[in-house]
Amino acid sequence: MNSHFPRIITLLRKERGLSQKAVAESLGVSQALLSHYEKGIRECGLDFVVKIADFYDVSCDYLLGRTPHPSGATVKISQPAAISRSAQETLGQTLLINSLSVLYSILGNCGNEDITNETSAYLFCEVYRVFRILYSANSKNPQGMFSVREKLAGSRAVASSEVALSNVHCLLTGEDIDNLKGLLKNAAPSLSPEKLTTSYPTLVSSLFTLIQQAELRMGVPTGAAEKPKKKG
């Protein structure tokens, strides 16, 4: 099996407010065995994967982490070598613009302006860092447009972005920070791939692709889940 399966079946059960005992009875297995499957202690057979997929009305590929869509739909990512440079630039811009639209919509639904502002501060610093490096690559470019000296810019931008990101994390958990107000209790967004697809049908594929691309950069083999071993 793979590391996605235990996490996803546990998440699905909790999202539906079901107990291990109730799910185990419906699937015809013991609660102890289901607990082992959810913790990744034991591997199940292919027949159980199919059975639990039918029970939660999702695809087997979704349970195995091969697609973010419960229905099993996949997001096709073009290989960089197969598209032109201009097409790559357009793709990158589209993924970022659409993903940011989803992000800011979710932030807006939280109803907390401080969280939105701190998120913007984090993104401002990250864009600043990249642009400053790009701008400074040519030593002939005048540095007068920047107030912070080049030798200090990188470290200060990193520090500022990390502070903003830490503030976002604390505020989302309900903590107040100085004059910044934390999120109200039970106001954290309830999200899942299915809910995102319903709320943002024209934008969410960009977000899913961005997530896949980011995790590929992290060395995570997205969509390369192992096939379940069939028990004899």
Automatic annotation (TrEMBL):
It holds the Pfam family HTH_3. SMART domains: HTH_XRE (SM00530). InterPro entries: Cro/C1-type_HTH, Lambda_DNA-bd_dom_sf. It comes from the Bacteria. GO terms for molecular function: DNA binding. Gene3D superfamilies: lambda repressor-like DNA-binding domains. Keywords: DNA-binding. The keyword Transport does not apply. Residues 9-63 form the HTH cro/C1-type domain. This is Helix-turn-helix transcriptional regulator. It comes from Caproicibacterium amylolyticum. The lineage of its organism: Bacteria, Bacillati, Bacillota, Clostridia, Eubacteriales.
